[in-house]
Structure formats: structure tokens, C-alpha cells
Design brief:
181 residues; mainly alpha; 2 domains
Length: 181
């Protein structure tokens, strides 16, 4: 009888030790987890793994947002925009998980906003890239060099036109008109 009581205490203690070693508060991990230490370990590891995956996705998301707002390379912005869509799609799968919450809003809401604002995001990025190209080309010695730099820039944008929204392509056309005047 004593051995059975001791075994039950040991099970409870080992569960608490495993739950607290995850870095989660015990109350966060203890949702519906049985007091079988082996079973608790599997669920805790799964939860910790999800936590690391989500933490990594959020890190990627923040990097993408930073580049969307600062990069002067339109190819980088376009690639990071697409990566951000993928990350937010993956994160939105966790919205209904009871042990996961997103403090700054749901990923699906951010995904929806991002899709709605694609033209604005891309147009602002094109403007940054254009401003950088003008600044870089102004340091060139000849008119031919400046024209070649501008031509290369607009050729790149033309090659990306299929990936860009119609509004952004119209904005690019207005920049081309501005340069040709």
C-alpha cells in the first residue's frame, strides 16, 4: 500500500518537474494532461515543439515586416511579401488552439490586411527603390551611365509586372513617364 502511494506521489512530482522544465508555467501545460508521466512528457514536448515552431515563425514574420518597410530592393520586398503570406497562413492554423494566443491580433486578420494592402506596400517599395536608383545614378559621371542605370531598373520592374498589382504597375508607368520627360 505504501509503495502504491509513493508511486502516485512520484508520478505527480515527475509531471510537475517535466512541465516546469519546458519554460511554460505549469498551469499553461496542465490542460487536460493525464498524470501518467510518460504521457505528460509526450504532450509537453509536443507543446514545447509547437512553441519553438511558432516562435520561429514569428521571428521570420518580424524579419519580413522589417524588410517590407525598409528594403530598397524590390525583388527582396516581393520575395519577403510572399514569405510573409506563407508564414501568416501557417500561423493562422494555430488560432483556435486553446493553449496558444496571439496578443497583437490574429494572424488571419493580419493576412487579410496584408492582401488588401499589397498595392500600397509594393508601390511604397517601388518608390524607395526608385529613390535609391536616382541617388545611385546621380553619382555616375555620364548621362549614358545614368540612362543605363534607369533602364536596368525599369527592365527589372517590367520583368516583375506579373507579380505586382495593377495599381503598382500603373505607379511604375507614371515613374517611367516622369523619367522620360
Amino acid at each position: 500500500m505504501r509503495n502504491l502511494e509513493a508511486l502516485e506521489k512520484l508520478k505527480k512530482l515527475s509531471y510537475v518537474a517535466e512541465a516546469s522544465s519546458t519554460g511554460f508555467p505549469v498551469s499553461d501545460v496542465n490542460m487536460g494532461i493525464p498524470f501518467d508521466p510518460g504521457m505528460a512528457f509526450d504532450i509537453v514536448v509536443k507543446t514545447k515543439t509547437y512553441y519553438k515552431m511558432i516562435e520561429n515563425e514569428i521571428h521570420i514574420m518580424n524579419d519580413c515586416l522589417t524588410l517590407l518597410n525598409t528594403s530598397k530592393n524590390i525583388e527582396t520586398v516581393n520575395g519577403r511579401y510572399n514569405t510573409l503570406l506563407e508564414v501568416l497562413t501557417r500561423l493562422s492554423m494555430y488560432e483556435n488552439e486553446s493553449h496558444i494566443s496571439f496578443r497583437s491580433g490574429s494572424p488571419s486578420l493580419l493576412l487579410s490586411r496584408l492582401l488588401d494592402k499589397k498595392a500600397k506596400i509594393m508601390s511604397v517599395a517601388v518608390q524607395r527603390a526608385y529613390d535609391d536608383m536616382i541617388e545611385q545614378s546621380s553619382s555616375l559621371k555620364t548621362n549614358k551611365g545614368r540612362k543605363n542605370r534607369q533602364e536596368k531598373f525599369f527592365n527589372l520592374l517590367a520583368s516583375m509586372s506579373g507579380d505586382l498589382p495593377q495599381e503598382t504597375n500603373a505607379f511604375i508607368a507614371s515613374l517611367m513617364d516622369k523619367v522620360s520627360q
